[in-house]
Design a protein that fits this description.
By secondary structure, the chain is an alpha/beta fold. The chain has 5 helices and 5 strands; from the N terminus they run βαβαβαβαβα.
Length: about 120
């Protein structure tokens, strides 16, 4: 059975690109448009093996989303990769403190993304 990846990003184009790259790599993908919908999907759908989230989103940003995921014991162990245009060390540090597992800067290389997912999902 293939692993499930939850992608959380407000950009439809980015969600489509992630979906294409991940499905081609053999993953099943669920998508959310912001952190609030991401939390809803965690509770309503199949628990993902890895979460890939943006930081800058409406309603609930990536930092708040990561913190909320980490507060829920059911989801605490799920690896969370941040995929963002941000390269600021302070934001990277803040994401790690919130509970992010890794950091990838957009635009992303599909092979490196899949490699990072395989590494954290092992």
């Amino acid at each position: 059975m293939s692993k499930v990846i939850l992608t959380v990003d407000d950009s439809r184009t980015m969600r489509d690109m992630l979906n294409l790259a991940l499905v081609e790599a053999g993953y099943r993908v669920t998508q959310a448009v912001d952190g609030l919908q991401g939390l809803e999907m965690l509770c309503a759908a199949e628990t993902p093996d890895v979460i890939v989230t943006d930081l800058n989103m409406p309603k609930l940003d990536g930092f708040g989303f990561i913190e909320a995921v980490r507060k829920d014991a059911r989801f605490r162990a799920i690896p969370i990769l941040v995929l963002t245009t941000e390269s600021d060390g302070e934001k990277k540090n803040r994401a790690r403190q919130a509970g992010a597992t890794g950091w990838i800067v957009k635009p992303f290389d599909s092979l490196k993304l899949v490699e990072a997912i395989r590494r954290v999902a092992a």
